Amino acid sequence: MLKTFFLTCSGVDKNLINKCSNGEQNKYAGIGATVFFTAVMATIAGSYALYTVFDNLYTAIFFGLIWGLLIFNLDRFIVSTIKKSDSKWKEVAQATPRIILAIIIAVVISKPLELKLFEKEINQVLLSEKNQMTLDNKTQIAQQFTPEISKINTEIETLKNEILTKENETNALYQIYISEAEGTAGTKKLGKGPVYEEKRAKHDASLLALQELKTNNSLKIAEKEKSINALIAQQKSAETKSQPIISNFDGLMARINALGKLPFFTSFFIFLLFLAIETSPIIAKLLAPKGEYDFKIEEKLSAVKTWATQQMQQREQMLNADVTIDNKVYKDITADEELYDYKQKMARELMKLQADSFYKKQQKML
């Protein structure tokens, strides 16, 4: 049962292989088993690769099975179409396009399994990349908001400096009128005279102006601080919205790129393993000498080719004979006087009918 299944996988002619020896059957059963297990590996690899894309187990398995059947059909076709020949160079030339196709298939099959085998290392690479992307993302977003925030902070500092300047001016006026009252400066007369009153009025006016400036500038500063808080909130919101995109940066292409950053040789040897598996049926057929099955299939093809050639030649001879006979028959008929007189009589009748019909049409028109 299992042997029959593997023979089916190898693409051989069942009627011919059953007439061959047991050793010949085992050879092709081994080739069929290689084809089958290559398709199994392709199904597993395809399912994992598609799972990283769709993130759904059932969808991945479904399309993975389709991919495995496709690889199975391709491998079966490749093996079954390689025919043994007396010239090894002819066989190699015949197999070269199929080997190239097998290499492509091996690359496609091995890559998803490499992703699974090196999953932990790939995750580490992706984590480092995500962290760097997060820092770069924050820097880029900050570049959008920092100039405006810096501008508002400058305006706040200007308002605070206005208050500070006014405070210094008011304090200076306070020291002037106090010194005038103490007699240590100004008129140097002890007591509160007219000059003192004048300087006290200047201080009081400056103090009122300072209080008004503090009130106005405090309101302006509060509004500008609200603007800064709003910009900071927008910046954090932009960072929050973009973070899921960075967190989900672990798709198939990202993992393949991360795999490329790992040491080359380990991944390369895995590829060589799958290449050996994929090309083994072809190499086996190339290395194996002509067997009983090959002679039988060659004999059958030769018989079909001979039969087809005979049929074409027979049909060509029949056509030539039929043309010759027809030419002779119609040549003999041409010389028959009776047939000539009959056709002449019918032609006269036909011409009379045409003349009568033309005459009737002319009468209707007039």
UniProtKB/TrEMBL annotation:
It holds the Pfam family DUF4407. The keyword Lyase does not apply. Keywords: Membrane, Transmembrane, Transmembrane helix. InterPro entries: DUF4407. The chain crosses the membrane at residues 28-51, 57-74, 95-113, 258-277. It comes from the Bacteria. This is DUF4407 domain-containing protein.
